[in-house]
Amino acid sequence: MALPKEFINILGEILEADERDRLLNALQTEPQVSIRFNPLIPDAESLALKSLECSADGRVPWAGNAVYLDHRPQFTLDPLIHMGCYYVQEASSMFLEQAVRKCVSGPVKALDLCAAPGGKSTLLASLLPEGSLLVSNEIQRSRAQILAENMTKWGRTGVMVTCNTPKQIGQSNLMFDLIAVDAPCSGEGMFRKDEGAVTDWSLQNVEMCALRQRQIIEDIWPALKPGGYLIYSTCTFNRHEDEDNVQWIIEQFGAEAIKIDTNPEWNIKASLTQDNLPVYHFMQHLTRGEGFFLCLLRKPDGAFRELPQKPFKADPTVPAECRKWLNDGYEYYVKGDSIYALPAPLASDMNQVSKELYALIPGIEIAVRKGHDWVPAHALAMSDALNTEAFNKVDITRKQALEYLHCDALRLEDAPRGIVLLTYKGIPLGFAKNLGNRANNMYPQEWRIRISIS
């Protein structure tokens, strides 16, 4: 892979010649493969590794629930990935976990601003304490749909997906304790994983990205509570998008850069400039992962006015039968042809977000209208709020699971008629309506596996 000469020159400005060459050589090697397991699913790690026919090639040291794989399998043909058992995520970006552990000790309102496709949001959903609200946002509608799919499969309650600009959120009445900004960048850290990033790279693009990143921070800053935390990250190396922007945030907004506890064995590189900022660089010649940069910043304390919230009013028209599909502790409402459930302690907060922003996922979609009936929604099967005892369950084979995910018709021998909850290895996969001679597939058509499953 031929790298741009200007990029090599930039590395020469921040690294000594021998270390620059080591990094350049590392960029010519194969990328690492790593996955992170869903703590909501018992035995997720052993189930996933067995299903993938992989071995763990060491643990990701800065993440509590992730491993490297000894090879890259065909993930699409593993039913468990479609059930949210694990997420394929680049290892360096999992360092977000250490930043969250540094600044979060109780329930928070958190925003993942540039969230698609969902790696950091699924990680945040696993890390945030019970009672937290996570708003995962993506500005591009097509990418927001992918984000919504991945967050639905991850199954954590107290999560919303929105599609808004940073300025719209910053000008809303919403305030967050924690905002993660994985800013769109020039992508230098992804060169060995994505040749398109090499093709798109230029000095002009670096400068454009640096300015756009500042605009994003400026737009979203009003939505961060005084005393709240901003996690700023990129997947690039240059100081313009990294250290220079951190210094700008400090000078522009009076923010404080916070030191994160690390282990010397992790080989994370400190600031590449002379200002000694507590920032963290991941580089391929030092760590098992792609290029990544992160800084944790704290907004100065100060007074702020948070608008009083109106108590959430549950919808009395929601059928009692549908309420039985979830465990206790939820409020319900009807929106269009869907019924949604909100965790009772978060109902007012989530309702406010829906009023202020455009929500693709305003809560747990538990039912959709089919003619005169309400039938369970796929999101219900994925949710940790599901009351599995409310449905007849049918455990199916791997072949049947792939047929289901391919949106094929099924034959369910000796299964009860009517709507059944399909499970694979005891984990909910989705719903089907068994008619006796065949079963209608209720998996979302837009999520179906499109490659051959034979």
Description:
This protein has 454 residues and is an alpha+beta fold. 29% of the residues lie in helices and 24% in strands. It has 15 helices and 21 strands. The protein has helices spanning 5-14, 17-26, 44-52, 79-82, 96-103, 119-127, 141-154, 166-170, 195-200, 203-220, 243-253, 320-323, 347-356, 378-382, 398-405, and strands spanning 34-37, 56-59, 66-69, 86-88, 109-112, 133-137, 159-162, 176-182, 224-234, 256-258, 280-282, 292-298, 330-335, 338-343, 359-361, 364-370, 373-376, 392-395, 418-424, 427-434, 439-441. Strands 5, 6, 7, 8, 9, 10, 11, 12 and 15 form a nine-stranded mixed sheet that branches. Strand 16 and strand 17 (373-376) form a beta hairpin. Helix 5 (96-103) runs parallel beside helix 6. 47% of the residues are buried. The mean pLDDT is 96.
Helix content: 25-40%
Strand content of the residues, in percent? 15-25%
Low-confidence stretches: none
**Could you report the average pLDDT, rounded to the nearest whole number?**
96
Based on secondary structure, the structural category is alpha+beta
- From the spread of the alpha carbons, the general shape counts as globular
Which oligomerization state do the chains in this entry correspond to?
single chain
How would you characterize the largest beta sheet? 9 strands, mixed
Counting H and I runs of at least 4 residues, what is the number of helices? 15
Radius of gyration: 23 Å
The total count of strands amounts to 21
Terminus-to-terminus distance: 35 Å
